[in-house]
Amino acid sequence: MSPRTLNSTRRYVSIFSAVRPGAVVVLLCLTALRAAAIDDADCMICHADPSASKTTADGRVISLYVDEEAFRASKHGPMSCDSCHADIAELPHAESLAPVNCGVCHTEAEEYAASLHGQALQNGSGDVHGCRDCHGAHDIRGHEDPLSMTHPRNLPETCGKCHSDPDLIKRHMVSVAEPSDRYLNSVHAKNILAGNLEAAVCNDCHGTHTILPAQDPASKVNRWNVANTCGQCHAAEKAEFMASIHGKALEAGIRDAPTCIDCHGEHDIEAPDQAASTVSKQMISRETCPRCHDDEKVMTRYGITFQRQASYMDSYHGLATGTGSQVVADCTNCHGVHNILPKSDPASSINPANLVNTCAQCHEDAGPNFAAGSVHIVPTSPDQKILGIVRLVYLWLIAVVLGGMALHNLLILAKHARAKFALQAQLRGTHQRFNRGQRIGHVVLMLSFTVLALSGFALRFPDALWSNLVFFGNDGLEVRADIHRWAAIVFIGVTVVNLLYLVFTRGGRGELRAFMLTRRDFADAFLNIGYMLGLRKERPRFDRYGYPEKFEYWGLWWGTLLMIATGLCIWYADAFLRYWPKLWLDVAALVHYYEAWLAVGTIVVWHLFFVIVAPDAYPMNWAWLTGRITNEEFKERHPLEYERLQQTKGEDAEEKED
Fold first, then answer.
1. Does the structure show a pLDDT above 80 at 86?
2. pTM for this structure?
3. Which of 91, 245, 611, 628 is positioned for an S-S bond with 430, CB 3.0–4.6 A?
4. How is 578-596 classified by DSSP, letter by letter?
5. Which ranges of 426-535 does DSSP label H, i.e. alpha helix?
6. Is residue 617 domain-resident?
7. What is the number of domains present in the chain?
8. Is residue 381 one of the residues assigned to a domain?
9. Does position 457 have pLDDT exceeding 70, yes or no?
10. Banded model confidence at residue 501, pLDDT cuts 50, 70, 90
11. In 10 A of CB 473, how many CB atoms?
12. pLDDT at 9 > cutoff 60
């Protein structure tokens, strides 16, 4: 045996004697045969070329390059090429070689074969390639080596190659997206980066080679095993949890019972002192505990009182939490963290016998009165009848007192409104601003618009209390749609009539000219703002219509045409989709919805202000109903039109005298 072969033999024995004794005998025989066999240098003639590659039957290009330096520095560096590629008998070898069988030396291959990944490999999944997915191929290093793919610092990236691939996780129905990225934000990853290599990484929770799907009872991340998995590092917390009401419920097979990940999260577990943590002072009472304890269906199933979070948020503790307090009590301060026990348990921190001591953790002077009453104030609860009576008395008192005040003030407004109506309705001392047709058209437009808005929003928000009260409850969905369509027909009708009036009548054309925007209208807007800010002594002088009416009028036409066009697209969706893609129907529906909000908002904020609230209209400008305004209002609000009419009357009088 040559010195080279002897040295190789010694190296193989040292490597494999700790792995599998039988493998040593096999390797000794192989080494003897290798005395005159293939030399690694012969392999590198081809495989040292970085461009070496081959194309597989499915069209994938596979690199055949081997970095000899990286290989010699790897765990398998002392071995020869044909130690793993055992089917190479001569060079050049066959184009397709048998897959490397790591199980010849590594018993872990048997565990891997039974795992989720191993099963996928055996079933022919093209996304799994065996050991090299995690360990590498020719550059395999021990997990303690910082350059190893399985080193604690590198493992999230190694697992993330597949588990952060969105297409792959969808294809294999993996339930958690981007686990590696989430893990890197966790307290575990931060500890690893800080040098604590004992902190949990992927394989601590999921297993190393025996990774199983979560639904497998033997899986470390199976819901029933999570506490044991976390308990590998957090033994004290696990013991407390298993003795708690949550742990006992979990042992009893109650799937709704929380386990570690329900409170702490899965991959993105943060330390409790971090604001983003699900168990931070701000989050525990606002979101984490209420996820279960405010779920009426779950709590009712187990006979547990719910809606406690709302009462907490109404208390001093909850209000202080809302301001960001880091010292005020949250759920865990009273109920415990992992050792949560029912109130009936003598060891429970909320047992009546222990409640004073629990309160005394923060309130040094806590005495018996601290426990004399309900902790969670819920006046509607049957066990808090006194509070319920006080609540009921005050609800009636508020309704009677405030309702009486509102009624009193409405009577005052109604009296002034009646007086102004009578003043504007009389013929003497008034000016006719709108004719009967304009007034009727306005009323029809107002009613159809109101019905459209109410029925449209009732269709959009079918579960809203007001929509169910107005539109026959949830069973009235078709009725709402019919009402909306009939109101739309009326609305379109009055729009068409108005358009004909503007085009084909003398009065209509005059109205249209009066509504035309000019540069003066934009100047008046700035001048009026200056007047309201006290920068000018006089307000601008308006004609028949000022900029507020003109802006609203043209906004009305814009909104009307847009709502009619988009509404017809939605109404006749099938016909629309024969010629246009669905995207444009979706755009039409979205425009219709938001334009409705804009229209209703404009009526409430702009139109009703100038008709009711504005000082020169208060408590109501009845011109929309009577068609008339007083001469004083006419002169004050439309001075340019007033002066023009006065001048016209004067000229007519002169013509009569002549």
1. yes
2. 0.72
3. 628
4. TTS-HHHHHHHHHHHHHHH
5. 436-460, 465-470, 477-504, 506-515, 519-532
6. yes
7. 2
8. no
9. yes
10. very high
11. 12
12. no
